[in-house]
Design a protein that fits this description.
Length: 438
């Protein structure tokens, strides 16, 4: 019974007492006696042997139960720790912050000496340290610690083969890379971080005890490494989406700036073109319809000026009549204004909406008409030039060409005087070296 309820030393003491009793029966005063005494000795010996056997079996059973309980408790602890890491991974999307919180949680919840995460670089030559615990980890990160893939280290090995690598005793394990910042490391476990079939990094766990990593530890930490792989993939996707979003915002802002500049240039060109067009016209650029009479007029009413200034419709009453004035706008530039005396029985909002629609279409139409007139004028001028050049074909001398040119220019432009000078040299300061021809 001591084997079942007591410690290892109690079992040994109990076994010693039984063996002493067994020795006394075999070699004590009762030895050699026959009859009932001999039978009692035989029964006692049998009982003692059975007791020893049962004690041994119970002791083995107790040890196995203790091991099972320990493994179960360890499994529960590792499961809880894995769940804690999973919660951190689930709520964090920024990769740096996620990895730093993950390694701290793994170290604290699993009670390890040091924990760190390596990620393989784009060239797939090195495993670069991206998260590490404690002051030693901060110093390693500051010097951009990295290990060559395939190097003589658990990280180099695991990032090459994609399977867990263990150094049970770092003093004798040739695969362990000794780091002067982590002098208390006695065993080390590295687990691959996989994205599908691709190795993207490694989870490195170090303990201050030799043979610290059991199969249960490896299984639990591999689950954590798999969770990290999913989190890293999601974080990278999130960061890529953020970069794309920022790039789209930048392009949108650039397009908006370009659009505003185009609109400004359009307004400037439209305004300059209309200013030049109206300046070149002799007739009044305005018309008024009153009753049935249409007359040209250039006077602007107060309502028309207000509509142009405000760049939006203006409504008011004048002498008991409802007045609506709407600006005529093209590409953001005001070309003029329309004023209408609306029937008081008409709905004001509908009247304003209709006049605005008319003003928009009128702006496009009169701009097209302006362009057409300018093209016509350009064509007429080109025709006159062609006619003058055509007369050059009839000239036989230089003097004839000069006379034809002056005659045509004077007639076309209505000039009272015109002159042409020919010179053998340009930029003459002395008129004696030039030849003038009128």
């Amino acid at each position: 019974m001591g084997a079942l309820f007591l410690s290892r030393w109690a079992y040994i003491a109990t076994t010693g007492i039984v063996l002493l009793r067994f020795w006394a029966l075999l070699f004590g005063p009762e030895r050699g006696r026959g009859g009932p005494v001999a039978d009692n000795i035989n029964d006692s010996v049998t009982f003692i042997l059975v007791t020893l056997l049962l004690g041994f079996l119970l002791y083995r059973f107790r040890n196995q139960v203790q091991q099972l309980v320990f493994r179960a408790n360890r499994s529960n602890t590792l499961l809880e720790a894995s769940a804690a890491v999973g919660q951190i991974i689930a709520r964090e999307l920024l990769l740096d912050k996620l990895l730093n919180q993950a390694v701290d949680t793994i170290r604290d919840r699993f009670a390890f000496y040091h924990v760190q995460v390596f990620l393989i670089d784009e060239a797939r030559d090195y495993a670069k340290l991206v998260a590490s615990t404690g002051e030693a980890g901060a110093r390693l990160l500051a010097r951009e610690h990295k290990l060559l893939i395939g190097s003589q280290s658990v990280i180099g090995r695991v990032t090459q083969i994609g399977e867990p690598v263990i150094a049970h005793d770092t003093d004798v394990a040739g695969i362990h890379y000794r780091n002067e910042l982590l002098p208390n490391t006695r065993s080390e476990l590295a687990l691959p971080i996989m994205d599908g079939d691709t190795i993207i990094g490694a989870l490195d766990v170090q303990s201050a005890r030799t043979n610290a990593f059991t199969d249960i530890d490896v299984q639990a930490l591999q689950v954590v490494a798999n969770l990290l792989a999913t989190a890293i993939r999601n974080a990278r996707l999130f960061e890529a989406q953020q970069r794309n979003l920022n790039e789209n915002k930048r392009l949108f802002l650039e397009a908006e700036v370009n659009l505003r500049e185009i609109q400004r240039l359009n307004r400037q060109l439209t305004g300059a073109a209309w200013t030049e067009f109206l300046r070149s016209r002799e007739e009044t650029s305005g018309i008024t319809l009153e009753d049935v009479e249409i007359r040209k007029e250039s006077n602007w009413t107060k309502e028309m000026l207000d509509a142009v200034k405000r760049r939006r419709p203006v409504t008011t009453e004048r002498q008991g009549k409802q007045i609506v004035a709407v600006p005529i706008m093209l590409r953001g530039e005001v070309l003029g204004s329309i004023e209408v005396e609306v029937d008081p029985t008409q709905d004001e909002s509908e009247s304003v909406e209709m006049i605005q629609a008319i003003a928009e279409r009128l702006a496009v139409s009169i701009d097209n008409a302006r362009l057409f007139e300018e093209i016509q004028e350009t064509g007429a001028a080109q025709q006159q030039i062609n006619e003058i050049v055509g007369r050059y074909q009839t000239a036989g001398t230089v003097d004839d060409l000069l006379h034809i040119t002056l005659e045509e220019l004077s007639e076309t432009l209505g000039a009272q005087r015109s002159a042409i000078r020919l010179s053998a040299r340009t930029n003459q300061d002395n008129g004696d070296s030039s030849q003038d021809t009128a």
